From TrEMBL:
It comes from Oleiphilus messinensis. Keywords: Hydrolase. One of its GO terms (molecular function) is hydrolase activity. InterPro entries: AB_hydrolase_1, AB_hydrolase_fold. Pfam families: Abhydrolase_6. The keyword Hydrolase applies. Residues 10-124 form the AB hydrolase-1 domain. This is Alpha/beta fold superfamily hydrolase.
């Protein structure tokens, strides 16, 4: 008798000025799909507060039989970190995480995940690279620094390669 395959789920959280199927998420979702993962991209459009986004993300998480991976960009990365504290995902893949932002409930939230990867731009005009690297060090996270700005659009091909490696490593265990 064949054992049913687990269904791994990747949940994407977009940034403040993006949408659930922006360019980065679309590209990363293609990678997740080729790895056999189910995909959910939460729509936060029209939501201003981080708290509202966190609640929406938590309410969107279905029952799954496999591993949960949270992926977020900018404010979506912040949301993913906060959500990780309640759902303990297998992985967090963060792009230009919005850390150190005044007005957010916790400017330097603690992450809970088996594996954490941070991708950040050296020339990020919103979040200094040092903020991201310090946070990554505190969380024993892998940290990739790119010659790009906050949007990371010029290096999406490299980020997709890193994401594929991240998923392959997580799902192999």
């Amino acid at each position: 008798m064949n054992k049913p395959q687990p269904h791994h789920l990747v949940i994407f959280s977009h940034g403040k000025e993006s949408g659930p199927w922006g360019g980065k998420i679309t590209r990363l979702a293609e990678v997740a799909s080729t790895c056999g993962c189910d995909i959910l991209s939460v729509d936060y459009q029209g939501m201003e507060s981080a708290e509202q986004r966190i609640t929406t993300c938590l309410d969107s998480i279905p029952e799954i039989s496999g591993k949960l991976i949270l992926v977020g960009s900018s404010m979506g990365a912040y949301v993913s970190i906060e959500v990780s504290q309640q759902v303990n995902p297998a992985g967090l893949f963060l792009l230009a995480p919005a850390l150190g932002i005044p007005g957010y409930p916790n400017p330097s939230p603690k992450a809970v995940a088996t594996s954490i990867s941070v991708s950040h731009g050296w020339h990020d005009e919103l979040i200094p690279a040092q903020v991201a690297t310090n946070w990554a060090r505190e969380h024993n996270a892998t940290c990739h620094l790119y010659n790009d700005d906050h949007r990371l659009l010029n290096v999406i091909d490299q980020i997709c390669v890193e994401f594929r490696y991240f998923l392959d490593s997580l799902l192999a265990v």
